[in-house]
Structure formats: structure tokens, C-alpha cells
Amino acid sequence: MYSPTSYTPSIPLSPMDHHLTLCALRNPIWEASAFATDMEISLLSIPNSPVFAARTHLDRWRARLEAQTQQVFQYDVIEEITWTLFHMSKITMHAPLPLLRIHSAAPSGKHRDVDTEKVATKLGIWRGSPCPRMGVISCAEVCQLLSRNPFGFDSNARRDKLNPLATPALLMAAIAVCSYAAGVGQKQGGGCPACLPGLEHEQGGCVDIFAGKCPQSQERVKEWEATGRGWPVWGSSGIVLCRCGLDRLGEWFQQEAVLGRDETARRELVAFVEGLKCGFE
Ligand SMILES: [Zn+2]
Fold first, then answer.
1. Domain range enclosing 204
2. Number of structural domains in the chain
3. Residue 255 domain-assigned?
4. Distance from the CA of 277 to the center of ligand 1, in angstroms?
5. Alpha helices by DSSP H, the chain
6. Is residue 117, in this structure, part of any structural domain at all?
7. What is the mean pLDDT of residues 183-210?
8. Residue 185 falls inside a structural domain
9. Which of 104, 153, 164, 207 has the fewest CB atoms within 10 Å, i.e. is most exposed?
10. Distance 1 CA to ligand 1 centre (A)
11. Rounded to the nearest whole angstrom, what is the distance from the C-alpha of residue 238 to the centroid of ligand 1?
């Protein structure tokens, strides 16, 4: 893998240039994803690991694009596809979907050859790192991006035609967020303030993950990402990301405006949530 560089082009890049530079990062991103899924999940956050290096590349890519679009902002469909790909890349690295899928499917016997103890150990290590929270933040960002509907789509079928990554990105987000919620009970002593009243003050209160452009809310989300303090809430839906909110979260993603018209994606999500509910931990 090459080293991150601080090179800044003298000529502003076009939306297609930004798209292609992101595509060029696919290799380190897949390397990071394989690393997170198969091998040293305990090393997710350390400098020089593939995940750390790929995250650095992506953060620099984002900073450069945001600096440029603050000067000349022109929304187009390439830009939406590029941002969708960016958020999918972050979810791929921080929420190892193959591992999460095994977790959900194991009780149904689909993965009889899987060492469930090993999967549970890996999941425990992953949940103890900041990576799941980083993944959840990317999920919230992609959901907000794709709900803006700047082109006035009359249906999400038309949205998918222009941005073919929309439904795969929303399904990824649904799986990563539901997995996070399903694990909260184990990690934080059994629940959230909604299912265990009295916890709220001890843990730092609620954190709206859909922070938008409010600097104060963004600060709270950053603190939650770094420390895990507080109870993440899924935007204006008010659903706390906890095991007790799993059904409502699944329903939120199944709405017509999210996955509702894609029957295959909907069915996959329903089966995934059912698998999580009879989790083997
Ligand atoms: Zn709860």
C-alpha cells in the first residue's frame, strides 16, 4: 500500500476526477475490509494497520472534496454516486458485513461449519473498539444523503436508476445499524434508558446520530464516536440504538422511502433481523 500524501492539485478537480480518485482507493479499502473480517480484528484502531491507513486516505479525500465544494457547489448525480460510494467504503471497513451476517445466520443452521465461539469472540472485540460507532455514523450519513431527494424523484425506483448504489448502500446501512443495536445489550450491561430507566444520567444522555449541520450536535456525535458515552438515537425517529429498539429500527429501514419497493432487499433485512433476535451469544 502506498503512503498517504498531502499533495494538493493546483487545478480544481471535477466531480468525475473526485469519483475516479475514490475508485482508485478501492484496493486499500478491500484490504482493510478483509483484515477486519478475517484476521486481526483487535488491531482495527492501531496506526499502520490496513484499516487505519485506508481511513486516513478516505478522510483526506473527504477533506479535499469538502474544501473544494465550499467554493463551487454544484450538485449533480455523479456527486451523489461518489458520496454514496464513500460512505459504503467506510461501512465496509468499520462494520465487517461477512462477520455480521454469520452472526445473524448462525442460529438458523445456515453456517453449521462456523466456529460460533470464535465469531462471538471476534464480535466482542469489534464491539469493544470505536469501529462499530464509526460505521453507524457513516450509515446515518448515507441515509441522510439518500433521503434528500434533490432531483425530486417520484419513486425510489427512479432514484435507483440514476444512482444504482442507493439500495445496496441502504441495505448495508440497515445491516450494520441493526447489528450495532443488537449488541448494545451485551456491551453496556443489559440495555438503554428506554428498557432500563435510570441509566441515562450515568451514561451521558442521548446523542442524535443525525447531527446535520448543528455544530453542537456534531460535537456530541464526535464525543460518542471517540468514547462511546451516551445513547445514540436514530434521528427524528427517536429510536434508541439498543436491542429493545431492533424491531422498530428494522421497520424504519423497510419504509417505502428507504427499502420499501425493493422486495429482495426488504426480505434480506427481515431475515437478518430475525436471525439477530435469536442471536447465539
Ligand atoms: Zn433498550
1. 15-277
2. 1
3. yes
4. 14
5. 15-23, 26-38, 50-71, 77-94, 97-105, 116-127, 131-147, 156-162, 166-187, 199-203, 215-227, 246-254, 263-277
6. yes
7. 73
8. yes
9. 164
10. 42
11. 12
